[in-house]
Target: Amidohydrolase family protein
Amino acid sequence: MTDEFDLVVRGGDVIDGTGRPRFAADVGIKEGRVAALTVPGVIAGKETLDARGFVVAPGFVDIHSHADWLLPLDDHGEILAPMLRQGVTSLVVGNCGHSLAPVTKDSTRLADVSSEILRDRAFPYTWRSTAEMLDAIEGRGVAFNVAFLAGHGTIRQSVMGNAPRAPAPGELGALRRATRDALREGAFGLSAGLAYKPGVFAKSDELASLCNVVAEEGAIFTVHGRAYVWISPFYKPMLLGAPHNVRSVDELVTAAKRGGARLQLSHQIFIGRRTWRTYPTVLRRIEEAVASGVDVAFDAFPYTVGNTTINAILPAWVLDHFEERIRDPKVLARLRREFAMFRLALGLDWSDITVTWGGGKASLEPLEGLDIAAIARRLGVSPFDAYVHVSRESSGAARVLIGTYSGDDSDEEPLRAVLSHRLCAFETDAILTRRGRFHNPASFGTFPRVLGRYSRDLGLFSLEEAVRRMTSFPAERVGLPGIGRLAPGYAADLVLFDPLRVGEGGPNAVPVGIDKVVLGGHVVVDRGATRLDRPRGRVLRRR
Model:
């Protein structure tokens, strides 16, 4: 044998990402790519990793991440190290309608406000277009493979600010041109966040028109829907007809069908105990859409809590001119009545909402880690007033964890049904910064938790199927070139894990059973210790 490979991963059980059964093989790596997959013991390399007792899988693809505003920072690898430690080698960013580009001189201020909960600290926008942004990020180097989506909200801000109305014909033309430009400059798709300003103001005709551009360019439309609850402020009549989360899926499927676009429903969740019962209907609607010819799938995280902005559950009529309305007694009186009705109707308690970051306000720091009910007791006010206080004082920037996402500690039936579905890709939806003292557990344990708790322990799906839906499936949905499989010619991004031990390590802890993570042929995680001597990732561009 000669040392024809830079690195040989020897003696492991390969799960190649396609879903087929594992097999014993050695992996030969050369110049950052998989060059050989052979029977054990016949190839040699300049370096060797002993993989005996471990599964060797492709690096995990996080199809829904919010790392955008960290990537321009020199220390983004250190901040995002928990993602590497759980085996993530590729990030899809620009989700929920917010992206780094395209921006104008005037819209950067609006983009900063929209991204406040996603940022670690401020930085200058040295770009305007998507192409300029990709060049800038690439020039600094990245600690992951990164694929960018263009945010509908960001594009809308660059054309018409945060105007709470439908675009005029000329503005719609500008939105279409900006979307097409972003896709042709390397973005893999268009994302929308229909519960966030300004996406919340977009109607179905606007979405369908932009889906048409996405379809013409062969890209994908990913979307945070208007409603993940059975009743909301977004659809009328409120109490008659289908549950609102079902209407949301119907609206998005219809927009994608009208425009001809491939559709990815972001973080499919069911919020509130009285929403859980709707999960069979939502999943059936998605299956019916597929049967009718719509290319649609979804993604989800394996936790019953999720991170978002404190304003995410406010209705659109409050978000328009928010700073004024959140101080208007008449507005607050109406909002108090609506919140009382919605909380009762949803089965969502004030104790289900925990503040993890107070938006950088010193007065709110003592409240971080407390739920709204506990904050109310501390302040001596009602829970509603405590919620408004945090929202108002943080200018809507406070970050929260909301519980009852598809279950709770005593009942995970909706969550397990979602995770088990063949159309579900696994994702983190994580917001990971140095801000605040409390973080989303998905930032630390998503993929090990799927492999351990839901595959090995509960047997919801095979280990091979779990790996497929965290590697080749999301890579193919987004269109990532040379990513997501362990096969000759693919990127040498690997995860070595112990199938008997793999699992999350607890809150903010290193996961268990992840032995090594390889990125571009280089070991970047070794038994929980990261090697960040230089960026090993790549900026991916749609061809």
